[in-house]
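In practice, a research group might receive sequence data for several interacting partners and want a quick structural hypothesis before committing to experiments. The following worked case mirrors that situation: the sequences arrive first, and a predicted assembly follows.
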Amino acid sequence: MINGVRRGSNAAPWFALKVVNTVIFIFILGPILITAAASFNEANQSKFPPRGFSLKWWADAFSDDWVDPVLFSFRLAICAALVSTIVALPLTFGLTRYRFKGRDALITLALGPLMLPALVISIGLLQFFYLIGLGDYVGFWALLAGHFVICLPFSVRTIAISLYGLPANVEKAAASLGASPVTVLFKVVFPLIKNGILAGAVFSFIHSFSDVNVSLFISRPGQMPVSVKILGFLEFGFAPTLAAVAILTMIIPLVLIIAIERFGGLGDFIYGERARG
Amino acid sequence: MGNERVADIALRLSKLGKKFGSVVAVDGIDLDIAEGEFVTLLGPSGCGKSTTLGLIAGFFPPDSGAIYLKGASVESLPSFKRDIGVVFQDYALFPHMTVADNVAFGLQMRKLPRDEIAARVDEALQLVHMQGLGGRKPLALSGGQRQRVALARALVIRPKVLLLDEPLSNLDLKLREDMRIEIVNLQRRLGITTIFVTHDQGEALVMSDRIAVMNAGRIEQVGTPGEIYEHPRTRFVAQFIGSMNFFSGRIVANGGPSHVTTDKGLALAVPVPQSLAVGTPVYVAIRPERATLSARAPGVDDHITIKGSVRQVIYLGARHEFLLDLESGDQACVWVSNEKGSARYAVGEVVYMSAPVDSCLVLPASRGHASSPRSDA
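A structural hypothesis for the assembly, expressed as tokens:
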């Protein structure tokens, strides 16, 4: 993107920008690198630079104690992303294309969780599940419900943006060429908003995978996302095991994003409208 | 066109009306378009021409009236069952498909066999001189090329009617002028009934068999380019196409040596239509290229002559435009073709503007006096 910017003759702003960028990168990457390094300590101390070298904390991180919650989080995030995408698709179509009674209320409802403290949602869900006699379902199903609520705004937003970004007359053009409304949807609309749908799903996945607030009260032993498990473990102090687990949980969404970027071009959606005709 | 057989009429609009909220976009339009005819809907933006096109294409239903496509009423038919080709101003190509896939789309919808589709796509691309570019994506094409693909995509389905919605307005001037001729030649060769929407009078004059001039949701006048230019029936048509000097006044005498006195007191001895009574407010309209200038009163018969002085000279290369302050207080413009390489009259010089009386039009000032635009539709 920088290539597109014309450089002025005045060097000072560019220098300032470089400084700011460097500081930002230091504060983003620094803690990650320190954490990663700390996971290789020999003794059970999170020292930096690490004292000695050992892989035992990584072995710990790959024990069932930690792999189970990581897999649980992974499953939960996949389901949350799927459900929120599947619900958001028709919902967003309705919201962006039709004016109807209760539309504003529906928008507030769908996007509200962005503004609502997630802890409130969590406590609310916990009480609600017990109130309607579904207390036994606290755990995966309650978590899925909670994560669906907090992921929905991401899916709705990204899908809405790509729907608004559709070239103006392509649907009419397709119709005039003999495509029925369903065919227009599958041959023209979906292919053109594909990246938006995908981006929404990825955001949802990451949001769910890294969530602590909503998960805190509606987990139960054995059905606990890794984020909550980490939080619990922290009560005993920061151990190198946690450093290894933290890096592990960071790598999963990262790999996902890289894979999708390679395969579908998420950047197209986030950075520009290269798909426009 | 009233005496034509119904079978020869490709498209008939009958009392077609459309409102958007409280805004009347199309206000009861009647128009018959013959098989193979090229008809232009011409008018300023907001006159309802694009809405009319949308109604024909079936993008939204009319509030009133009927549309007959080859004799069959189609208002209740959805767009995808109408067999109408549309070329949009922004081309509306499918950005995720190659050029060939774009062109093939309509044929795939018709479930034609693969090899026939391939053959017809090739043929269509050849028609618009885009052969060999079938593998490109629309984004890799220039504006002119996209336009050609859009045209090929609409033509390849062999539609009953081709609709062109300001397809040239996004192109450079030079390319636009070339495409005018190219589209018309293509249309004549294929004999496809075409409705062209534009606000550009030049395009309308060059391309059309007939022009329907639209204003405020209605058709003001329908006719060949020559009829519209030479015999505009309303002030709106007269000023929308070409340039025109208007003198507002009233009819003083009718029958025999009739004339009009302008609001500023100028007496113009011009022939007045019998249908307009003495006292009717009218405009006398004179094309700037029909009037001539002279340093002394010419004193020729069958000409009106008005004294004035040159206020401004505008140099346009091929001609000079002289803006005049007339003795009466009116203003006028006269075009003099540039045959000598310099302006014949200087600013401030006294000149006589004269025009043959048969080039002066007398147009009723109020709409009610215009002969109904429906009568020839």
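Before designing any experiment, note the following. Residues 2-38 of chain A form one domain. DSSP finds twelve helices and no strands in chain A.
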